[in-house]
Amino acid sequence: MVLNFTNARKFCTKSSLLKNAVQLTKDKFPNLIRGSYATVDSKDIDYFNKLLGANNFITGEEVKSYNEDWLKSVSGFSKFVLKPKTTEQVSEILKYCYKHNIAICVQGGNTGLVGGSVPVFDEVILSTSAMNNIISFDKLSGVLVCQAGCVLENLMNYVQNEGFIMPFDLGAKGTCQIGGNLATNAGGLRLIKYGSLQGSVLGLQSVLADGQILNCLNTLRKDNTGYHLKHMFIGSEGTLGVITKVAIQCPNTPKYVNVAFIGLKSFNKVLSFFSLTRKQLSGSLSSFELMDSEAIKSVQTNIGLKCPIDDSFEFYVLLELSADNNFINLAIEELLEKALAEEIIVDATVADQPSQIQKIENI
C-alpha cells in the first residue's frame, strides 16, 4: 500500500482548523448508537454542584470547548463538565455515576488527534485540569509525584530548576497533561534514549469505574512485590479507570545538548542515516524525528516558521544528542561530514545554544 502524504494531511490544514461548525460525532458516524445510559436531571446537577462547587461544575456556553477535539473534526454535545480537585472527589463522582448509570468521558488537555478525549453523545465530561498540584520531588532519587492534571511543560520547567528533565517531550507540552500522557502511553521525542513511559513511571493512583481507589503510587525504582497493576492503566485510555496521581523517574539534565536539522533526498537515505547515527553515537542519541516536505511546507505556510535549510528536500530529520561531556560537539560534526561524504544527506545545520536549539525545535 502506498501512502499519499499530501492527501493524508488535508485534514490538518489551516482552513480545516478554523471551521466554525464542528460536525457532531453522532452525525459523522451514524452507525454509532448511544448506550442505555441515564440523562442527567436536576437531582444529579444538585449533587455535582454540592460536591464540586459552582466554579468547578461547568454548564452553558463554556462547555463548547470541552466538546470539540483539537482538530475541530468531531464534537459531542455534553451539557456538563466536572472538574474535581482531588482523588476523593473523582471517587465520589464515579461512585455516583456508576450507581445512577450516567456515562462519563474522561478528558485531560484535549490535545489528541483522534477524537478520543471528547464525548460521542451527551456523556458528562470529567476534566482533570483542576488536579494540577506537584506533590513532591525527591532531589536524591529524581522522583516526581504529581496530580494527573499537571501540564507537561510546567513539570518540565519545575524539574529543570532542580537539575533534572522529564524523560519525554511532546509538541503539545504546553497543553497536554501528564495523566493523559500516561493514559495514551505517549512516546514523545526522547523515547530513543529513555524508553517508553512504561519504564519511567514508578507508580500511579487511579479510581475505578465504581469509585474504588487503587493506590499503586510506589516511588521506588526497584519493586519486585507482586503484580505491577500500574502497567494496565498506562495506555488504557480511561477504559479501566481515571488516573489521578503519578510517580515518575526523572533523569539528570545532560550538561551538553546538540541539535542538527538535516535534509535528505529519500526515505531510504533516512534509514541509512539513522543506522549510521546509531552506530556512531548510540550512547548520546536522544531524539531522531522525521518530517517530510509536506510537513515543512505546512509549518511554513500556516505558522510562519522558516525552514533553517533549503525547503526543497523530500525528507528532514531533527537530530538531538545529549551527554555530560562536550565530545558531542565534535562527534556531531564528524557524523555529518561522513554522511555528506557518503551522499546520505544533502544539507544540515547545527545548534548548541539554547536559543538556537529552540528555533530549530519549533519547526
UniProtKB/TrEMBL annotation:
Q: Which reaction does it catalyse?
A: (R)-malate + A = oxaloacetate + AH2
Q: Which SUPFAM superfamilies match?
A: FAD-binding/transporter-associated domain-like (SSF56176), FAD-linked oxidases, C-terminal domain (SSF55103)
Name the major location. Answer: other
Q: What cofactor does this one take? A: FAD
According to the UniProt entry, its GO molecular function terms are:
(R)-2-hydroxyglutarate dehydrogenase activity; FAD binding
- Top EC class for this record: oxidoreductase
Q: Where in the cell is it found?
A: Peroxisome
Chain ranges of the FAD-binding PCMH-type domain: 74-253
What cellular component terms from Gene Ontology apply here? Answer: mitochondrion; peroxisome
Q: Which InterPro entries match?
A: FAD-bd_oxidored_4_C, FAD-bd_PCMH, FAD-bd_PCMH-like_sf, FAD-bd_PCMH_sub1, FAD-bd_PCMH_sub2, FAD-linked_Oxase-like_C, FAD-oxidored/transferase_4, Oxid_FAD_bind_N
Query: Is Oxidoreductase found in the keyword set?
Result: yes
Pfam families the UniProt entry points to: FAD-oxidase_C, FAD_binding_4
Q: What is its EC number?
A: 1.1.99.39
Keyword list (alphabetical) reads: FAD, Flavoprotein, Oxidoreductase, Peroxisome
Q: Which family does it belong to?
A: Belongs to the FAD-binding oxidoreductase/transferase type 4 family.
The record's function comment reads: Catalyzes the oxidation of D-2-hydroxyglutarate (D-2-HG) to alpha-ketoglutarate. Also catalyzes the oxidation of other D-2-hydroxyacids, such as D-malate (D-MAL) and D-lactate (D-LAC). Exhibits high activities towards D-2-HG and D-MAL but a very weak activity towards D-LAC.
| Known partners and oligomeric status | Homodimer.
Protein's name in the database: D-2-hydroxyglutarate dehydrogenase, mitochondrial
- Originating species: Cinara cedri
Q: What is the lineage of its organism?
A: Eukaryota, Metazoa, Ecdysozoa, Arthropoda, Hexapoda
